[in-house]
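Most newcomers find our protein records easier to grasp once they have seen one. A learned vocabulary of local backbone shapes supplies the integers on the structure line. Here is such a record, shown just as it appears in the course material:
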Amino acid sequence: MSMAAHTVPPPLRDGDRLTSEEFLRRWEAMPDLKHAELIDGIVHMPSPVGRHHSRCQFIFSTWLGNYELKTPGCEGGSEGTWLMSRKDVPQPDISLRISPEYGGQSKDEGLFSAGAPELVVEVAASSRSRDVGAKLRLYERMGVREYVVVVTGKKQIQWKVLGPNGYQAHGPDADGIARSRCFPGLWLDTRALWPLDRARLFAVLQRGLDSPEHAEFAARLAAQKR
């Protein structure tokens, strides 16, 4: 009796045009591949990550991780794959969401998160053109409520907040502190980033965590748990 030969999917290649289903099918056949994205139906493969990118991503992951620790119902992630649409499967550098059981806007589909997290941070080095172009438009379209781009080469922070007409710039207050609208108490001292002053950076975050607005937000999330 003849048996049909097992067909191995072709490998992912930069620039391929695929649906999300085909993108995931090919990725699952490449167990050694750790990073790939589908943006507007186009495959983007990883590029080398430099020291400044790696260091900056670590600091922002720690910053959001400290916030998550003190805020019930919040869930952070690093380089996790998100199922956003039939043409979009991004892998944000860092994300922070309100868990579905606490009333968040995203959901879970099998091994992956689906929909859109409330906040995304992208460290823009070699990927800058995509982070401020196709990815910005994707996150805006899918409803990511706050989008932070850390431009390492220019030592800049671009913080966007989603409004009725799309993303609007969200700069720091007069004291140099950028305060999240989606996550009360998530404070970023922009003056502590270059050169990096970790003690000051996390001291300001702690002030945000000790603020009345954070206490109110945390209580509201706890009350919404299903």
Observations:
- The first strand starts at residue 37 and ends at 39.
- The domain at 51-220 is CATH 3.90.1570.10 (tt1808, chain A).
- The chain has one domain: 51-220.
